[in-house]
Amino acid sequence: MEILRYDLVILGSGLAGLRAGIQAALTSKGKIRIAVLSKIHAMRSHSVAAEGGIAGVLYPEVTGDSFDAHAYDTIKGSDFLADQDAVELFVKLAPEELRFLDHLGVPWSRTPDGRIAQRLFGGMSIPRTAFAADKTGFFIMSTLYDNILRFDNVDIYHDHMATSFLMENGVFKGFTVLDLKEGTLKVFLAKAAIIASGGAARIYGFTTVSYAVTGDGAAMAYRAGIPVKDMEFIQFHPTGVVPAGVLITEAARGEGGYLINKDGERFMARYAPQRMEVAPRDIVARAIIREIMEGRGFIHEESGLGYVYLDLRHLGEEKINTRLPFIRELAKKLVNVDPVYEPIPVRPTAHYTMGGIHTDTYGHVMFDAKNYVPNLWAAGEAAAVSIHGANRLGSNSLAECSVYGRLTGEAAAKYALEASSSMLELSSSLEEAVKREEKRIFDELFKTETNAEDPYQIRGELWRTMDTYVYVFRDEKGLMEAGRIIRDLKNKYKRIRVDDRSRKYNMNLREAIELGNMLDVAEIVIVSALARTESRGAHYRLDYPKRDDVNWLKHTLAYYTPEGPRLDYIPVRITRWKPEERKY
Amino acid sequence: MSEKTSGAVSKLQLSTPEISPKTVSKLITLKVKRYDPDAGRYKLSIYRISVTRFDTVLDALLKVVRDQDHTLSVRYSCRMGICGSCAMMINGVPRLACMTNAISLGDVIEIEPLKNFPPVKDLFVDMDQMFRKHRSVKPWLIRRDEEEQFTAKKEYLQKPEEVDAYRLFSTCIKCGACMAACPTVASNPDFLGPMVLAQAYRWSADSRDEGAHIRFDIVDNPNGVFGCHFAGACSAVCPKNSDPALAIQLLRKSILRGKR
Ligand SMILES: Cc1cc2nc3c(=O)[nH]c(=O)nc-3n(C[C@H](O)[C@H](O)[C@H](O)COP(=O)(O)OP(=O)(O)OC[C@H]3O[C@@H](n4cnc5c(N)ncnc54)[C@H](O)[C@@H]3O)c2cc1C
Ligand code: SF4
Ligand code: FES
User: Fold this and answer.
1) What is the pLDDT of residues A139-187, one digit of tens each?
2) Is A38 left (phi over 0), alpha (psi -120 to 50) or beta?
3) Which of A22, A245, A474, A575 has the most CB atoms in a 10 Å sphere around its CB?
4) Which helix (H) or strand (E) holds A260?
5) Which residue is closest to A113 within chain B, CA to CA?
6) What residue spans define the domains of chain A?
């Protein structure tokens, strides 16, 4: 078996991973060797899908914006579950990141005098979202990818999929990694590592995220004894195209788009009279489902899905072409609707994982409230710092990826510079762990059983279950049922079979491994959601419709046990903004 | 799945994507030419599959994988035409499978791995060489003062018209469709190819960049900008309308102007 040794290994090459890689290369001035792993080609990472923009206070002297205003919007948007010290750090660093990205070459949309243009986004009190047309994530990603190529001490491993963490005595040692192109298992040993493996919204069938967003990082961390935080908070984006689920960016509403029901009414007036269509996502998503539920939506003939309309017609062709060209292209190609002339059918779609690997204010991974994994960091959607609390504001995620990519890249590089190379030894107990992983993948998943289960059927059941019971509205009975189904699917998963026997680019094998991760993550989401008997942000319980600060102003931590997740709780860090009722 | 759910939730969830009461669907045939790495040759697999009005070629392939043949390997991720994973030959033309409607292609769709790339397995091809070429033209923002570049205090001002000078070429998703269509790439594997040359131009045309002369030196040869015969096939197939042929022309012009 091939063993590779690096000072720093970064898992994931999305916006967070690439930003971390660049910062680590700069901080170490070429003195450490860095590996970036990605289970797909690095520049195909899911971050390319981000459309609307990236938030940051750029020109306070011109716009009257301030760090405090950005912090308050973020905290209020989070339904007061965000850790306020982290939010304060985040809003201060965000504008520096936008300028850094500019210095790498992002093709921003600009104002006539050459400054970076900003637009309005949901839950933001002022236009502070910088953008590059409606492909902001794509442009930032390709700029970061291009720029990381300049560093000779960074090796990018495309099509390399981590399957487990190697840990020893509370210290992170490395990953077992499946080289998908060759079909062999490798070991990557590291003095320090950053988990930037993205979110988990693919545990849902109706979702905006790419197929690769399967929560691998969270699942591997969880199985390695690291807690996963606040997983009950899954964001449903209000406007997924029916029937595909593909995203229509919030910028469409930020630029002035309307949401209308069957009666042609701008129904948001009933739910958020002041902010209307640009209220935060949790509120808009619930409003849409209520409209549909109360018979004021439409029913999509082929899929049976209820929906409402997103109407952009009044924006005019020119604005749509300059500000939302990708939306026009997507709507035309995917549902044969030209938004210049027709409204787009939309409904809420699983979009973002607020929860993730438990870290401190700086992205340093922790076992609980006090104890650190000394050489492990997490950044981007894989981490829960927590900036977003119970509900993320649009355009705060790309900013978080960049800010925390930088912070963790710097911290991990400094750690690796000082660490001794004895950290890169493979002890005999670790060797055992590697052998067990080899056995799990090549013997257990590949075994031929007569009554074996089909992974794609299990995945279909998982999607149906999450789409039905763990969606915008939840209640105890539904969550109990979901829990029962998932446990049943986990039992079935033990008997699955991979039909493809070949080694090279075996997608069947990759998807079977991902399915195992998705089932673990889904179980954590359900168990955490069932325990939280209140409604906060994106987590709405019909049987407990009120926020309950007395009992629930706290973060959930889920720990692995063989019987299923064990939950623990830690307090929210509050600095200057006392919880108040959330009105828009 | 059990139907006995809590009343409230089941009333709210009008339905899930799988429940399709009135699906308008049609049976089509997919002929997939796939590469078998163990045998070292191509083989043909033929599938009959039902597709609905909005299904893309990628949707159709994924239905095959799910329902008929778990062993078929397809490269895909975003399914929204932005990650560049799913370029393949569809009825002889390099296209993104996720942005190509299936029903409108007729009853039979022929699918092959992307041309001009070494096959690896089924529809997977090896893109390493393309990305090595891409790296060789230094596709990043070059500044004389790197210290200043990496400690950004202010953004570089850039007028909208200055963005327009390179914006089109920055939309390239590196899917490789243009490389598959290019006759020069087919006959000369060392030719940098449209995607790579367009990227050399994209960075050089950026008003924030100071490295054009370095890139011009790299591409000023028969394997670079002077290998292009202006067939124009690249721009014709580009799914993002990024017009690599135009970029190559502008690049050649800039180099010739520099020599005068
Ligand atoms: C359609 C859409 C639009 C969005 N628009 C916006 C927006 O306008 N503004 C905003 O702020 N946010 C937006 N978001 C959210 C934002 O895009 C994501 O939160 C962000 O891109 C996540 O980046 P990341 O670097 O954390 O992870 P990702 O970009 O998901 O990258 C994860 C990386 O980890 C790798 N990886 C995962 N598992 C493994 C494994 N087991 N082994 C090896 N590698 C692995 C993947 O290959 C990939 O490289 C949007 C999201 C979607 C879905
Ligand atoms: S120029 Fe067009 S066809 Fe060529 S790689 Fe880029 S997006 Fe694909
Ligand atoms: S799957 Fe991403 S471009 Fe087709």
Assistant:
1) 999 999 999 999 999 999 999 999 999 999 999 999 999 999 999 999 9
2) beta
3) A474
4) strand A258-260
5) B159
6) 3-233+352-424, 239-348, 428-567
H or E stretch at B256: helix B244-259
Output the CATH code of domain A428-567.
Answer: 1.20.58.100
pLDDT 10s digits, A533-566: 999 999 999 999 999 999 999 999 999 999 999 9
Backbone angles phi, psi at B120, to 5 degrees: -120, -60
If one looks up domain A239-348 in CATH, what number appears? 3.90.700.10
Identity at A342, one-letter amino acid code: E
Is A30 within 8 Å of chain B by CB?
Answer: no
Q: CA A23 to CA A19: how far, in whole Å?
A: 6
What is the least distance, in Å, from the CA of A563 to any CA of chain B? 23
The residue whose CA is least distant from atom 5 of ligand 2 is: B174
ipTM score assigned to the predicted complex: 0.94
Q: At A483, give phi and psi (nearest 5°).
A: -60, -40
Percent of all residues in chain A with a pLDDT value above 70, rounded to a whole number = 100
B84/A502 Cβ within 8 A: no
Residues 550-579 of A with CB under 8 A from B: none
Domain A3-233+352-424 fold is FAD/NAD(P)-binding domain (3.50.50)
Interface of A with B in 307-336 (CB under 8 A): 326, 329-330, 333-336
Note whether B104 contacts A: Cβ–Cβ < 8 A.
Answer: no
- pTM of the full structure: 0.96
